[in-house]
Amino acid sequence: MRPPRIARVIAWMIIFVVGVTGAVMVAVRWVQTAPGQGQVIALDPHDRAQSVTAFVPGRVDRWFVTDGQLVKKGDPIAKISDNDPELLARLAAERDQVLAEIASVESARSVASIDVNRARQMYAEGLAARREYEQAQIRVADQSAKLADSRAKLNRIQVSLRRQAEQIVRAPRDGRIQSLNAAASATLVSAGTELATLTPEGNTERVVELMVDGRDIALVRPGRRVRLEFEGWPAIQFSGWPSVAWGLFDGRVRSVDPAAMSTGLFRVLIEPLPGTQPWPSDRFVRLGAKVRGWVQGETVSVGYELWRQLNDFPLEFGNAVKSEEKSMDVYKKKSK
Question: Domains of the chain (ranges plus CATH)?
């Protein structure tokens, strides 16, 4: 009996598909990648969002800015009033009193010094007892101790005056007010309470902060090439075939944290790759924008990659293991 024509056609199609699939799995190459998600941050900590805090305790008496307002370095942001409105006046009065005490003690010490010189001369001439000379020296030492105590008290008062004078909170640098702590207007604030968040503006050096799983982190090392997909930027990604992808940007690994974060992921900093298409401008990709990244690794066959992912195995280290073994051999030779 001969099988029907349709059965023979289907059989040959199955054989053809199986053969082509096998050839693709063996011959076609696939670039392994370590995926990660993160955000755009500023490399310089001074270019990141900063908290503007209160220097002295009190309550917010007045706001000089609003959300989204541009400020220059030194511009006032808020005025803090002390709970005691007469505190500055009392401190100034105490300062004047201490200054008067210092002047009085200095005058008394000058007189005591004159007495010491007179007692020394009379003691040398035999006209006075040694006890009188020693008592004169004791009076000078007492006046010096009082003078030192008064000056220390004056320093404490001046420090308090300077702190209370810093009731105008000013912008630490140029930037834009991102948000104000409106609750601070109705409550008492202490030194260190956050009053506003300031975001610097201008030319900032941006990097991408990626979080990579610990299973793949051994493959990630400085200099590795990375493909990046920025949030809001149209892109088509083929992680195994980087040349086919569209709308992605190139970067390279700048550094890898030696220890994992509290989430168990490792932080990897990505910088722009020189000689490639520059990243989108700040207008399209702002600080804090979400990013997906793929750190490129070894090139393997499609079949091996499919088998690895089905078994949830780590990436193929390949040359990375060989280079590590070479470095270990060199280290052993040097240690010998």
Answer: 27-46+203-325 (2.40.30.170), 49-82+167-199 (2.40.50.100), 86-165 (1.10.287)
Give residue-wise pLDDT tens across range 313-323.
777 666 555 54
The rounded distance, in Å, linking the Cα atoms of 291 and 273 is: 16
pLDDT digits (tens, 9 = 90+) for 268-296: 999 999 988 899 888 888 888 899 998 88
Of residues 326 and 7, more confidence is placed in 7
**Tokens read off for 318:** 């390949």
Assess contact for 218 and 317: CB atoms under 8 A: yes
List, in order, residues 6 or more apart from 112 with CB less than 8 Å away. 136, 139, 140, 143
Three-point CA angle 121, 122, 126, nearest 5°: 120
Read out DSSP for 98-132? HHHHHHHHHHHHHHHHHHHHHHHHHHHTTSS-HHH
Query: Within 10 Å of residue 264's Cβ, how many Cβ atoms?
Result: 9
Q: In what order do the strands lie in the sheet with 70-71?
A: 50-53, 194-199, 175-180, 70-71
The answer to whether 119 and 136 have CB atoms below 8 angstroms apart is: yes
- Does pTM top 0.85 for this prediction? no
Contact 80, 169 (CB under 8 A): yes
C-alpha 304/C-alpha 160 separation (Å) is: 72
